[in-house]
Structure formats: structure tokens, C-alpha cells
Specification:
The protein is α/β, with parallel strands linked by helices and about 425 residues long. It has helices spanning about 25-35, 45-55, 60, 75-85, 95-105, 130, 150-155, 175-185, 240-250, 285-295, 300-315, 345-350, 355-360, 380-385, 390, 395-405, 415-435; strands at about 90-95, 115-120, 120, 135-140, 160-165, 190-195, 200-205, 205, 215-220, 230-235, 270, 275, 325, 335, 340-345, 370-375, 405-410. The protein folds into three domains: about 5-60, no CATH class; about 75-295, Aspartate Aminotransferase, domain 2; about 300-435, Aspartate Aminotransferase, domain 1, CATH 3.90.1150.10. The protein is built from 17 helices and 17 strands. It has a seven-stranded mixed beta sheet with strand order 1-10-9-6-5-2-4, sandwiched between helices. The protein has a three-stranded antiparallel beta sheet with strand order 8-7-14, with no helix packed on it. The radius of gyration is 24 Å and the shape is globular. The mean pLDDT is about 95. It binds pyridoxal-5'-phosphate (PLP). The site of pyridoxal-5'-phosphate (PLP) has 13 residues, from helix 5.
């Protein structure tokens, strides 16, 4: 039995088994899934569905159910695929990246008043847990090229109360990790990488997921790969901590420990400074495991397609000196190209990114209101009791880039025509701004 398997329902061959699954699925259910995953309409589609149904219903008579729907061999297979890909042995498949963050935050035994340094620009999931337990969030200003946490500003904002640094590899472009790890080592700080966008990214020859104390990846449906809509992998570099991650995923249950007196073992999880209670169940399903392993197998191909789209945009936009090219692979980094980082020089573009975004929207090029200055989110300034304008003064680059210089654009799932249209729309919009329109 693997480390992941939930032994509670594994009663094996017996006269009265304890069924792992309350109710099984049948051929009709499977057809509903096929119809959901492969949608269509019209006669050709319905004919194809009818042909499939004729075959699928034969399974009812001959097939046996999987027996186990959660935390079993397919979850383990996805973890093994992730381990091999990331070159780690700690991949733990959880319900989402946020669940992975929570385990890492708990490892640091965070308590009220502790300080956590987060980048000024990210998604709220990055810091929801420390905010919820009364920690002080400290906002590091960002690097104007990548919008990632600027290590020089992190250095300035470390205090004796700093317990964690949380770099975010925004849009899959790796953070400059060496100086961050040096600072963390020097001040004995736990590093959690928000790698939600960065499955497959590399920094100086190392896979993201093998650098900080923890990294958590997202497989939510809008990420590069998904496990049927939701999912996450959390990894650690803390020696021997893999088993704690697996137990922390599910309320501290120890699946590797033999059961004595019909009482299974639930123990606290080992944190940096003392034990903590794993208060969440972030177990994943076998179907998710199946889906994730298959998508991990094609991750490199997906990244290559995204890179090709980013290269195309860079080539097309190079004619306009008001547009700053998006960073591509170089000797130090390999991004996942989760999104295209469009940046402009407002002085040359004749306006700000906010104006450009509006023009793009009018032309039908989607923007996602997603990442912004964290301290301007209502939940953050209300709970922390801070004045966002005062914090803004400590993050001048963030203010400049967010309001004047950058936006994220999609890179995947676009056909050639859409990619060409997007490049044209950007160039036309900048030209209009330059002409004062
Ligand atoms: C930067 C960032 N961090 C964290 C998350 C949270 O990921 P999940 O939805 O898997 O919890 C997201 C998701 O959109 C994200 O964009």
C-alpha cells in the first residue's frame, strides 16, 4: 500500500466487505461524463454519441467498479509523474494551490503579529491564510520587468518578526530566487513559493518546486494544465517532510501506521517550532489523479506552444518602440508562459496601460481583472487596518506598473487568426493613443 492510500475502506476480499464507494457509477453516468467533456450539437455529433452509447452500455454487464474513488493508485500515479517531472520526491496532490499554501503556513507555526512578506502584486489566495489569522502582511515592491517580488526591496523589509517570505512566480516567470534564499537562510525565514502558474518553470537549472522550503502549484481550470477543473501539487525541500505533507493533506491521518485496537492513528503535524493541527481535508479524487497524470505528460508540449505564441507576439510588437518585449527563456530562467506580459512605455505610447486595456476591450481582446496591488483589495486593507495610499508609497514600482505600464494577455488555446488579431489590435490601439485618439 502506498503512502497516499486511505486504508480505512480497504477490507480486501471478505464475505461482507466494507464498500469503499457508497454508490457506483454505470454506463449512463459515463455517457453523461463523455457528453460533458466532449460537447457538441447537431446531427453528426448526436450520431457519434449514439454510436458510443451503443458500445458503452455493453460495459454494464462486464465491467467492475474501480472500488476506490479517492486517494488511491491514480492519485499516487499523478504524484509519481509530478515527482519525476519536477525532480522531487515530495509531490502531494491536494484540492488546490491554496490548500498547499495553508500547510506551508502552518509549518511555520504562524501566529498573530508575525510578519509575512508577499509581493505587492498577486492574487489574494497567496496571502489569505496569514491575513485570516492576524499576521501582518508586508508588501515587497516588484521588479518592473517581471512584476515579481524584488529581492532588494524584500531585504529592506525584513524585521525580527518576519517568519515567511512568499515569492510568486507571476504568470510563470520565475522570481530571482537566489537572493531570496540567501536572505531566508541568513534570517532563518521559511520560504513558500506561490507556484500556481509555474508548473514546469526553471530557475538556474532547477525546477520550481525544488528551491524554497515549500512550493504550491495550481491546476485550476484556467492554469496551463488541470485536474478536471481544480487541483494543486505542494512540494517541499525539507528533508523527510514528505510524509508530513501527505498527512497534513487529510487532517493528520497516518495511513502508513498499522491500526491497533481498530483505532487509526491521527497525530499532530511537525512544524518548524512545534506541532500543529492539520484542520483541513484537501484530499483529491482518483479521477483527478487520472486527469492530472495525463496532462503532466503533455506539459512540455504545452509550454512550447505557449512560448511560440509569446515569441510571435514579441516579433510582431517589435515594430513599436512604445512596447517593452516580454521576457523569454534565457540562461537563468525558463518560464511556463502562463500569460503574456504586455508592457508599455507610457511616455512613448501617448497614454497609460489603463487606456490601452480599454481600447483592447473595445476591440474584443479579453483582459482578466485578476492581479493587482494587494493592499488595495478591500479585504486586505480592512482586516489589516491600513491606509492603502500610505502603503502605496512603499511600493512605487507596483503603483507605476499596475496603473501605467502592464497587463496580462492570453497565450493558449488561440488559433492563428486570433493571435494575429490580438497583435494587430495592440499595435492599432497604441497607434491611436500616439495619435491622441
Ligand atoms: C498567483 C495565484 N496564486 C494562487 C492561486 C490559487 O490557486 P488555486 O485556485 O489552485 O487555489 C491563483 C489562482 O488563480 C493564482 O493566480
Amino acid at each position: 500500500m502506498g503512502k497516499t492510500t486511505d486504508f480505512r475502506y480497504n477490507t480486501g476480499a471478505t464475505k461482507v466487505p466494507w464498500a469503499a464507494v457508497g454508490e457506483n457509477y454505470n454506463a449512463e453516468d459515463l455517457m453523461a461524463v463523455i457528453r460533458f467533456l466532449m460537447q457538441g450539437e447537431g446531427k453528426e455529433y448526436e450520431d457519434a454519441i449514439e454510436a458510443v452509447w451503443k458500445q458503452v452500455q455493453k460495459l454494464d454487464a462486464v465491467a467492475t467498479p474501480p472500488g476506490k474513488l479517492s486517494l488511491a493508485k491514480n492519485v499516487e500515479a499523478a504524484e509519481a509523474a509530478s515527482n519525476e517531472y519536477l525532480k522531487t520526491d515530495s509531490s502531494t496532490f491536494v484540492t488546490n494551490a491554496t490548500a498547499g499554501f495553508e500547510i506551508a503556513y502552518k509549518y511555520a507555526n504562524l501566529k498573530e503579529g508575525d510578519e509575512v512578506i508577499v509581493p505587492a502584486i498577486t492574487f489574494v489566495a497567496t496571502m489569505a491564510y496569514p491575513l485570516s489569522i492576524g499576521c501582518k502582511l508586508v508588501f515587497a515592491d516588484v521588479d518592473p520587468r517581471t512584476l515579481n517580488m524584488d529581492p532588494a526591496d524584500v531585504a529592506k523589509k525584513i524585521t525580527p518578526k518576519t517568519k515567511m517570505i512568499v515569492p510568486v512566480h507571476l504568470a510563470g516567470y520565475p522570481v530571482d530566487m537566489d537572493p531570496i534564499m540567501e536572505l531566508a537562510k541568513k534570517h532563518d525565514i521559511v520560504v513558500l513559493e506561490d507556484a500556481a502558474h509555474a508548473f514546469g518553470a526553471m530557475y538556474k537549472g532547477k525546477m520550481i518546486g525544488t528551491i524554497g522550503d515549500f512550493a504550491s502549484f495550481s491546476f485550476h481550470e484556467v492554469k496551463n494544465i488541470t485536474s478536471f477543473g481544480e487541483g494543486g501539487i505542494v512540494t517541499t525541500t525539507i528533508p523527510g517532510y514528505d510524509g508530513e505533507l501527505k498527512r497534513a493533506r487529510f487532517l493528520g491521518l497516518d495511513f502508513t501506521c498499522p491500526i491497533k485496537d481498530w483505532l487509526y492513528n491521527i497525530t499532530p503535524i511537525q512544524g518548524k517550532y512545534g506541532p500543529f493541527v492539520a484542520s483541513n481535508n484537501s484530499s483529491t479524487t482518483e479521477i483527478q489523479g487520472l486527469g492530472l497524470a495525463r496532462q503532466i505528460a503533455r506539459n512540455e508540449k504545452i509550454i512550447a506552444e505557449r512560448r511560440a505564441a509569446a515569441e510571435y507576439l514579441n516579433r510582431r510588437l517589435a515594430v513599436c518602440d512604445a512596447i517593452i518585449p516580454c521576457k523569454l527563456d534565457d540562461a537563468d530562467i525558463k518560464p511556463t508562459y502562463h500569460m503574456y506580459l504586455l508592457q508599455i512605455d507610457p511616455a512613448k505610447a501617448g497614454g497609460t496601460i489603463q487606456q490601452l486595456k480599454k481600447k483592447l476591450e473595445e476591440k474584443g481582446v479579453t483582459n482578466i481583472p485578476h492581479f493587482g496591488p494587494l493592499y488595495r483589495f478591500n479585504v486586505v486593507h480592512t482586516i489589516l487596518g491600513i491606509d492603502p495610499d500610505e502603503v502605496a508609497k512603499t511600493c512605487p514600482v507596483c503603483e507605476e506598473v499596475f496603473y501605467k505600464r502592464f497587463t496580462h494577455l492570453p497565450l493558449y488555446g488561440l488559433d492563428e487568426e486570433q493571435l494575429i488579431y490580438m497583435a494587430d489590435a495592440i499595435l492599432e490601439s497604441v497607434a491611436e493613443m500616439q495619435a491622441g485618439k
